[in-house]
Amino acid sequence: MTEGNWLRRLRKTVLVAVGAAALVAGTATHAAAAPPPSDGPVTPQVVGGTRAAQGEFPWMVRLSMGCGGSMYTDTLVLTAAHCVNSTGNNSSITATYGTVDLQDPNRVTRTSNYVYRNPGYSTSAGGDWALIRLSSPITGAAKLPLATSTAYDNGTFAVMGWGSATEGGAQQRYLLKAEVPFVPDSTCQQAYPSMKTAVEICAGYPQGGVDTCQGDSGGPMVRRDSAGNWVQVGIVSYGQGCARPNFPGVYAQVSALSSAIASAAASLSGPPQSGKVFENLNNVSIPDAGAAVFSAVSVTGVTGNAPSNLAVGVDIKHTYRGDLVIDLVAPDGTAYRVKNSSSSDSADNVVTTYSVNASAEVANGTWRLRVQDVYTADTGFIDAFRLTF
C-alpha cells in the first residue's frame, strides 16, 4: 500500500507534529486494518472551528498517540479502533483530561494499562471504536452518554478536537469546536462508495469549509438529546482531506455500536475487588544498568482467578525514573508490562497504582514485581510493592 493510500484512509489521525515518540499507536497498521475509500486523499482536525471554553465539553480527552476520545467511565476512554494497534496490555498511552489547553498545569493525566480494539473493525460490519482502560480512575470524571437509538442521528452535530485547523496543518494547543449538519447515506456514498452504511454516519456541508481533520480521530460527534444534554452519536473516523467540498466527514455510528461497546466495557471493568492486600515493604536495591531485581508477595486465601482490575501498588525511589522497566510476574511466570523505559522522562520516583487484567491467572501463589534499570548514571530501590485483590 502506498503512502498516499494510507493517508486517504486515516484522515482523522495525527500524522504530523507529534513526533515518533508520541505515535505509540496509530501507525501504518491502521491502513492494513481498514481499506481506504476508493478515491482521493484522506486526513482529520477541526477546520473552520472556534476555540472551546473551559468546561464546555468536560468529558473530552486527548490521547498521546495523536487522537481524541471521550470519557465512558471513570477508567475507560472511548476512541477509534484505527487509533490503536491491537487488543492487549498497553501502558504507553497517556490520556489528558479536564482542560481545553494541553499545557494547562492543572490538566489531569493518566497512563493506560489495557486497550480493547473492536475485533470486527476490519470486517464488512466495520465499527471504528476502541476502549482504553486507564491505570487508575479519574474519580468523578464527566461521562459522555452514548446514543442507543437512531433518534439523534440527524440534525446538526457538534465536533471538537485538538487536530489541525487546516488540511495538513499543525496540531492545536487549544481545543477547537464546530458544528456540522447530518448528511444522508445516499449522498455520502457518492463521495465514499465503500462507506459501511450499517455502522457509519456522515456530516458536513456541501460547500466544505468545516470539518474534523488530522488529529481529531477518535473524538466524539455529539448533539443535544430531548432533555438538552449532550449525547454521543459518532466517533471521528475518516474523510477525504479536510473540509473539502462534497466530501463530508465519516464517523462511526454510535447508535449501531453502543451495545457492543457496553458489553466490552463490562468485561473490562471486571468483578469488584475483595479488598485483600498483600505487600512487601522490604527494600530491594536496583543496580545501575544492571540485571532485573524482584520484590515478591505470597497470595493466599483468594478464591479463583485474579481480577481483571488487579491493583498493583508500586513505590520505587529512583532518580530519572525513565530508566526503569517494570513488570508484574504472575505465579506461572507470565509477565505483564506496566511501565516501559523512556529516555525523556527525567522525573524522580515511581509512586503509583497500576491496574492489570490478570483474570487469566490463578490468584494464589507468589507474585513478583520485576524492575530493571536499562540506562546508566542513576540508581534507586524498590521501597514497597503491594497487590490488592
Task: Report the C-alpha radius of gyration, rounded.
Answer: 22 Å
Could you give the order of strands across the largest sheet?
9-10-11-14-13-12
What percent of the residues sit in helical stretches (DSSP H or I)?
Answer: under 10%
User: Low-confidence runs (pLDDT<50, min 5 residues)?
Assistant: 1-45
Main β-sheet description = 6 strands, antiparallel, barrel
What's the CATH H-level homologous superfamily of the largest domain?
Trypsin-like serine proteases
SSE pattern, N- to C-terminal: HHEEEEEEEEEEHEEEEHEEEEEEEEE
Shape: elongated
Count helical runs.
4
The CATH architecture of the largest domain can be given as Beta Barrel
CATH C-level category of the largest domain: Mainly Beta
End-to-end distance:
47 Å
Oligomeric status:
single chain
What is the tally of beta strands? 23
Structural class: mainly beta
- The mean pLDDT is 85
CATH topology tier name of the largest domain: Thrombin, subunit H
Number of domains: 2
Q: Could you tell me the strand content as a percent range?
A: 25-35%
Signal peptide: 1-33
InterPro entries: Galactose-bd-like_sf, P_dom, Peptidase_S1_PA, Peptidase_S1_PA_chymotrypsin, Peptidase_S1A, Trypsin_dom, TRYPSIN_HIS, TRYPSIN_SER
Domain Peptidase S1: 46-266
Organism: Actinokineospora iranica
